[in-house]
Amino acid sequence: QKEVEQNSGPLSVPEGAIASLNCTYSDRVSQSFFWYRQYSGKSPELIMSIYSNGDKEDGRFTAQLNKASQYVSLLIRDSQPSDSATYLCAVNLVGSGTYKYIFGTGTRLKVLA
Amino acid sequence: DAGITQSPRHKVTETGTPVTLRCHQTENHRYMYWYRQDPGHGLRLIHYSYGVKDTDKGEVSDGYSVSRSKTEDFLLTLESATSSQTSVYFCATGSGGIDEQFFGPGTRLTVL
User: Fold this and answer.
1) Average of pLDDT values for A43-52?
2) Of the four listed, A102, B51, B70, B92, which is most buried by Cβ atoms within 10 Å?
3) Mind telling me how many Å the CA of A16 is from chain B's nearest CA?
4) The pLDDT of residue B98
5) Percent of chain A, pLDDT > 70?
6) Interface contact B99-A49, CB threshold 8 A
7) Which residues 6+ apart lie within 8 Å of B63 measured at CB?
8) Integer Cα distance of B51 and A59 in angstroms
């Protein structure tokens, strides 16, 4: 069973702090990794994608990937109340020439003003 | 925003009735996906399509069927709705390969 695991939270951080969200996955052949943000009652919105080991930065967001440890994380710097949402980790699976995605159950982030 | 619409956005139906949800995209993406999202389970793949008339099952496909007669439309059918199919349904599209997918606004389905 291929799985993606996240701590459900809630993760509470004060405004202006760094929020650190973590995700582990079980399928070693996964090639691409994504972080989606989902506000309550809304659809998931892509915020970061990462394909190779190391860090990828985009504004206040940094994604980190360690394929050897099967671990991907998302750091949010200078957290704002508007960052309060559920963050979904997704892993791309390749099989028989088709592409599917497995999602974690999400981590709920609360940024306290 | 990948130009994805879903219809209807909300639906209430009774157990045993057939229901069809529609996903329409304007991005000419090859891949289309149907997910359901339930508390505690996250997003689970129901069916997906990798081309016109090419579909395959996901992890929770029992009780659902799909059809894709043209690139832009992907239909999800519940042949005989049950209360366990009460959920929020999301359509997603992608170009395939290792790239990301984009989500539609969702359909909230309630089966009484």
Assistant:
1) 94
2) B92
3) 28
4) 76
5) 94
6) yes
7) B78, B79, B80, B82, B85
8) 35
Tell me the Ramachandran region of residue A13: left when phi exceeds 0, alpha when psi lies from -120 to 50, beta otherwise: beta
Task: With cut-offs at 50, 70 and 90, classify the pLDDT of residue B16.
Answer: very high
Q: Are the C-beta atoms of B85 and B78 separated by less than 8 Å?
A: yes
Q: In the predicted model, is pLDDT for residue A95 greater than 70?
A: no
**Averaged pLDDT for residues B53-68:** 94
3-state helix, strand, coil in chain A (%, to 5): 5, 60, 40
Per the prediction, chain B carries an average pLDDT of 94
Q: Which residue of B has its CA nearest to A43?
A: B105
Identify the H or E element spanning A100. Answer: strand A98-103
Q: What is the average pLDDT across A62-91? A: 95
List the single residue in B with minimal CA-CA distance to A103.
B43
**Residue of B43, B59, B68, B93 to mutate, interface with A, max A Cβ within 10 Å:** B43
End-to-end CA distance of chain B: give it in Å, rounded.
Answer: 33
List of chain A residues whose C-beta atoms are within 8 Å of the C-beta of residue B29: none
List b or e across B61-85, with b for residues whose CB sees 16 or more CB atoms inside 10 angstroms: beebebebeebbebbbebeebeeeb
The phi, psi pair for B93, rounded to 5°, reads -135, 160
